[in-house]
Amino acid sequence: MLQPELARLLAGGQVLLKSCDEDCPSGDTHELRQREADEGNPFNYTPQLIHLHKDHQLFEDGDIHRHMYLQDLYISEADDKTTLSVSEFACHISGCSAVFSTLEEYEHHYNSLHRHVCCSCRRSLPSARLLDIHIQEWHDSLFNILAQRQDMYQCLVEGCGQKFRTSKQRKDHLIRLHKYPPDFRFDKTKKDRGTRETKRQLQHKDAAMEVVDDVCESEGVCEVMCDVLSDQPERGESMETHVSRDDEAARMAESASAEEHAGLSAAAHSAGNTGTEPPKPRYSYRLVFKEVCCKPLDVFRLFLAQYCCTQRGHVVPFIRCF
Amino acid sequence: MWRLNKVRHKAGRLGGSLEEFKLKKREHEKALRQARRDRQLVSKRLLLNEDEDQPEVNMDTASGEQDVVTLFHTLQHSGPEREAHLKALSKALHDPTAQLTFIKQENSMHLLVGLLTGSNASCRLQAVRCLHELSHSSHANVAPACLPATPYLLTYLSGQSTKFTELCLYTLGNLCPESDAVKEKLLAQGIIPALASCIENQRHNLAVVEAVGFTLSQLLQAKDAAAKIIPLVLASSLPSHLLSVLTPDPKFGLAPAIECAWCLHYLTCSMEDNRVLLAQGALLKCSCLLVSLGAAVAEGNKEDGMELLICPLLRCMGNLLSSCPVENLSTEVGDIHVVVALCALLQAYLQSQPALARESAWVLNNLTAHSSALCSALLTLNLVPGLIQLLPFSQGINTMILRVLANIAHKKKEFCVQLAHLGLLSALYATLKMADQEMVTLSMDVLFMLVVSGPQVAEEFVKQGGLLLIEAIQYNSEGEIRRRATYLLEHHLVSYSSYCSVNTSAQFVFPFLTRTNSALNKD
Prior knowledge:
The structure holds two protein chains of two kinds. By secondary structure, chain A is mainly alpha-helical. Chain A has helices at residues 3-11, 30-38, 60-70, 103-113, 128-139, 141-147, 167-176, 190-203, 223-245, 247-251, 261-272, 285-291, 296-307, and strands spanning 89-90, 99-100, 117-118, 153-154, 163-164, 319-320.
């Protein structure tokens, strides 16, 4: 609001503050908060009266100004330069400590390095589509099986739609038709990985689009993810065992009280079917959460990635796992 | 009385450039900051004669010393020239070396005290001037040498001579911070009742009032003031006099109000319980003053030095609010336009005195913490967009402003909806990515309150890509923040995900989830 508006308001005469019924420390959201608190709600903001003692940090500048005045060293504001500063932005992904002066720089960093990251190998891909393809071709055993019988290797160029029996054929297609370079970074075959990675690491330390085993050396891939990853393969592998153990629990998936293993086992049951059509999930979102202690969305994503869409945006989370 | 322009003119005439002067000030400022960190921030004032602009030392040190000794010897014998010699002595005592020399002379203080209490009024005036020079010294031995004079200085406070009383006061004020022993002595000699009756009797004489304010502020800044000094001050008539002086006299200027405001600040910040001051209407007085100062600032009448008054008033108000029971808030605060004034101050001083902007935001926090009416006022008076625009500014400004906005959101769901419409939701997209973790935590808290306030806000958030934002926060390095992100997604956002654009194969997943959720009787 501009100062003239404020001046007008202030010139308009006194308006006395009336006491309200709602003026009580708890406010009228008391009931809501009560309910929320019962469910382990971590949000606990309460308005607070802040009392500041004489030597508080917040008072430093004002005190200095006062004493400069007492000592006849008053600086009129016309002479003084401003000390106002603007907040910086920082990537808070665990393990990443990048700091930026503008939001645009932050967004660029985030979208480039954290947005489309493969859970299994921590590789960062530049787009959701390439990430999908990567996951499919590198981490999907089903893909390998299907690829023996049909053309599964998609052309990387969006809109082309062609598929190929081998990755070499695809590569040839990319070079021949789409004029891609032979060493296109986002079309590595799996066997390339071991030999070339160390070299690449040395060359591209800063950008670090390809992440190798040691997550901490790369920029922007989180340690938290590492924890997730160390869990995930286990879960993936033990999915089938879950099925046999918790079959009964799976049937209870729909009931409100079903906990813990039910969700995953139901999901696992679906995963166990290696039919050609994606089975409809028979679990509840909420139960799936309970399975993973602090990363509830990951297991959910697991199924999205495998069975659902390649759609980017808020539907499909930015990190895909298998 | 201090005129703020003096210093700048001095600089020009001295021949040094303004830049050099500024450099010197910066260095001095650094020294003051360090002193504050060491809890040793102390200042003394030197009251200059009207006929001199600054303590110019025309003679070199050696001759200065010689002069002092000579003058001292001369003064020991009575004579008609005594007054002139005393005057010369007071000028000579500008010089720190001369000061040391003087006090080392045997019986020098005895002589001065004798002249101070003698029958010659002009000699008294010059004698007190000499004492004043000595009191201003920062040397450990010089100022304490003046102690024998204090009972007389205190006695003279009930006198009527303006210049003389001022000099007595500033001398006492300079002596106060010397040591605990000095303070104890002054207290025992009755400095507080003396100051109280002085300000009462000389209420019309603003130069004296200013001097009383300064002296009292020196006492109140003591480390253990809360234990010994403040209770005595609160029991006296001083608080009511201080409050009555707060309104600046347009002719005399801001100086007396400034001193009294700082006294009140030292009183309010030391006490957790400010009932005595509240009972005397201190909060109401501060509030009204801030309204008129805010109005002046909003109209563009920003006087030099105004911030020296605004700062302690803000602090008084902030700390008084923290002891004010919420049911008394309406009587104590008075005019709701105080929030307008605070916003005006915030904007006006943001660039030049960011600390003042921060303190204004702090007062707004204390005003809005438990008052629905004041929160509502911020909305109805259209002050919120201006506050949202301040969210980029760091060093405590944005965190405090976000608290104010959180206070508003916390009161009612309708307020949350309004806040979202006014752009707070969009602003959170940026604040959630700021480097300051406190901003991120507060932003999450505010986001939560907005999202649970109603389906419209949650829908809007999801439509603008909010889910991706929260998912990223699930990988935040702080566990508490991760928990909040997860909780928000789990409990409050998943049912809105059908509002985002999906392709066909995903559509059967989300409607399914929504149905499942309702089957499980979730919200």
